[in-house]
Amino acid sequence: MPPSHLRALADIASCGTPSRGGHLLKCDDCGRREFIYFSCRNRACPRCHARQTAEWTAARTGELLPVRYHHMVATLPAELREPARHSQKIFLAELMEAAAEAVQDLALDSRFAGGKLAVLTVLHTNTRALVWHPHVHLLVPGIAVDTTGGVHRMAPRFLLPVRRLSGIFRAKLAERIRRRLPNFEFPGAVWRKKWVVFSRPCIEGNQPVLKYLARYVCRGPLSDYAILSAGDNHVTFRYTDNKTGESRILTLPPAEFLRRYLQHTLPRGFHRVRYYGLWAPANRKVLRTLQLALAASRPPPRTEEVPAQQPQKQGPRPCPNCGSVHMSVIGRLQPLALLWQPLNRGPPT
Length: 349
Hints:
Layout: H1 3-14, E1 22-27, E2 33-37, H2 50-61, E3 69-75, H3 81-86, H4 88-107, E4 118-126, E5 132-141, E6 143-145, E7 151-153, H5 162-180, E8 197-201, H6 206-214, E9 227-230, E10 235-240, E11 247-252, H7 254-262, E12 273-277, H8 284-297, E13 327-333, H9 340-344
Antiparallel strand pairs: 1-2, 1-13, 3-5, 3-8, 4-5, 4-12, 6-7, 9-10, 10-11
Helix pairs in contact: 2-6, 4-5
């Protein structure tokens, strides 16, 4: 088991417990005292990062362009999923790079976009049933900027041809994997099948897709609320079937459930979200200029627009006894020794 999985287990088990440490609060009105324990803030934890998710969504909302967006998905073939499991840092990173580079290269063709796009990529490694299934989600606006600074708008319902994009994506990924892993041999079935690349316009708006991606940016693959029951011999959770959209219930042995859950814990330091093109940090000034230009060219709205929702700041914790918000910190509970330290690094023999 990798050290990142051991640490995820220990952090999730100690999240919100005295082993993480905490604050001792006292109500100024009724005098009640209460301990508030700290969270683990591990990326695999199903309970943490609600505030970080809201902040990330608000930040990306402020960077959106007033155009039609397109939601694209590039999937790793089934024959390459097991090799990707054993070399995650290389395969998953090159998967994201190849998908973004394929979109940018095809967009430079004057028959399609004719310029540089803004690409936001989010890596997913799981299905709803927690099966290992690496794929990349891309959020792309239907507007491009050429080398001379000209702006090109695409058709509202079409961005790029997916069949041609699939071939470019396959070639890009194969080239990158061969460069990073010279001794790796691709299975023959990989070249006899079409690679899945999906694209659709966001007719319902940009916010639903952005919220869908935000759920997997800072949190684990499964929420605490999806777990219906757990015992010594079983874990039962609810998930939504991708094909039918129906809610299903799955019961697994505890060891198999932990294996499915932990296999989606990414290596330490791996970035699940990456920005390319106009969304890259080096092009943020160009993106902001394009935002202002498009906002100035839009006609004034007939009705009053609803402002974008900002992440709500967490208010003071109310007293569970009298409901007063006048709670003061009067002490601090020091954290105990973390459980993952002896697991990662044992004593010398």
